[in-house]
Amino acid sequence: MARWLLHVDLDQFQAAVEFRRHPELRGLPVIVGGNGDPEEPRKVVTCASYPARAFGVRAGMALRSAKRKCPDGVFLALDPAAYDEASDEVMAVLRGFPGRVEVWGWDEAFLAADTDDPEALAAAIRAAVAELELSCSIGIGDNKLTAKLATGFAKSIGKASAANPGAEPEHRAGAATGTFRLTAANWVEVMGQRPTDALWGVGRRIAARMAALGIHTVADLMAADRQRLAAEFGPNTGPYLWVLGNGRGDTEVSTEPRAAVGRSRSETFRTDLTDRAEIRSQVARLATGLAEELAAAGRVSTRVSVTVRTSTFFTRSKQRKLAEPSADIALIAETAVAVLDRFELDRPVRLLGVRLELVPE
Fold first, then answer.
1. Which residues are catalytic?
2. pLDDT over 60 at 174, yes or no
3. How far is 262 from 360, CA to CA, in rounded Å?
4. Mean pLDDT, residues 99-113 taken together
5. What whole-number distance in Å separates Cα of residue 190 and Cα of residue 154?
6. How far is Cα 294 from Cα 38, in angstroms, rounded to an integer?
7. Cβ atoms within 10 Å of 267's Cβ, excluding its own
8. What pLDDT score does 257 carry?
9. Among 322, 313, 324, 258, which residue's Cα sits nearest to residue 287?
10. What are residue 283's DSSP bridge partners?
């Protein structure tokens, strides 16, 4: 039997959890975020149901903007405890199947399994998840990269099938509603002519830099000179981009919970801050709370970062390495304020954040 990587991604997860509690909301444009008040300032959408997405509502969008796009949307408050519980249910189901499960968050996980029929395994998983009154899309790959990308195709095929049952799905080979297989065998066919930012891990900025080198598509990246990529992007990133372009990736699945290498805390203020003393006080407060939390967990910090977002949404971070690893709460707070003092603070401040890098456990 061959080793397969399956990427399981729960569909419209937060909205779907709400549908379990409120079946009458199924099929409606449901928007989750903040306290459920679309007039609440500086709160964003964390999940939009598929009907809401049809209006252009997306995660990360301000609730007020979502209201303008979808005035008849049903706005619900974020309920992390409910999502934790539902996620735990799903992950327990996944662990009941043969293989190793690596959890990546509330709504996604990788499953490594030895099987001759990964589509049959995916179908069984989807049926088991459906018994929880939830649904998922599954990407099948020969590594994490291909499995993750395959999930995107699985979702698009599922949506197209629902909208037009008689339509021929894109890339019929290896496709079923809610499932898609992407491997070395069909990599060029499926991915070759897509833009480089279609790759998992390639953002717009990197794609733009590659475009300046004449690398516009995944096929271009496959044929690119690795030394030229290394010269442009560095000795690690350059070759790694070539590896991504050729559809190669990690195959290891860890069942161990990930130990955080850093933790952050941020706050968006209802009213912009303009007084420097108040800004310093808020940073000290955030840093102190975060340092206390980590000290209680027995974690030791090595570096302190501060993020400032102004009223114009200009965002910048600065950092300082501690002289030696420390869990000293006062020292960490003082360092955060010292990092803040390196900012000009010539515009009203909308958001402040503090991040602590940690000694690995």
1. 108
2. no
3. 9
4. 92
5. 13
6. 34
7. 14
8. 61
9. 322
10. none
Query: What radius of gyration do the chain's Cα atoms show?
Result: 23
Element (H, E) at 210: helix 204-212
Average pLDDT score over residue span 99-127: 94
Q: Do residues 161 and 167 lie in contact, with contact meaning Cβ atoms separated by under 8 Å?
A: yes
Short-list 306, 305, 311, CA closest to 268: 311
307, 317 Cβ separation under 8 angstroms: yes
Contact between residue 134 and residue 90 where contact means Cβ atoms under 8 Å apart: yes
- The partner residues of 175 in beta bridges, in order of sequence, read 180
**Residue 128 dihedral angles phi and psi, to the nearest 5°:** -65, -40
- Residue 25 vs residues 16, 28, 65, 84, 357: alpha-carbon distances, Å: 10, 5, 21, 21, 42
Task: Tell me the pLDDT tens digit for each residue of 205-255.
Answer: 899 999 999 999 999 999 999 999 999 999 989 999 999 999 998 898 888
Structure pTM? 0.71
The CA distance from 326 to 311, in Å, is 34
| Total residue length of the chain | 361
Tens of pLDDT, residue by residue over 301-330, are: 999 999 999 988 788 889 999 988 888 999
Q: How many CB atoms lie within 10 A of CB 280?
A: 18
Q: Residue 290: which of 361, 213, 353 has the closest Cα?
A: 353
**How would you classify the pairing of strands 74-76 and 30-32?**
parallel
For residue 1, what are the contacts with CB-CB under 8 A and spacing of at least 6?
114, 115, 116
Element holding 63 (H helix, E strand): helix 63-69
Chain segment 247-299, per-residue pLDDT in tens: 998 898 888 665 557 888 989 898 999 999 999 999 999 999 999 888 887 78
Instruction: Indicate if the pLDDT at residue 168 is higher than 50.
Output: no
CA distance 144 to 3: 12
Q: CA 284 to CA 41: how far, in whole Å?
A: 24
Spatial separation of the C-alpha atoms in residues 107 and 13, rounded to whole Å: 6
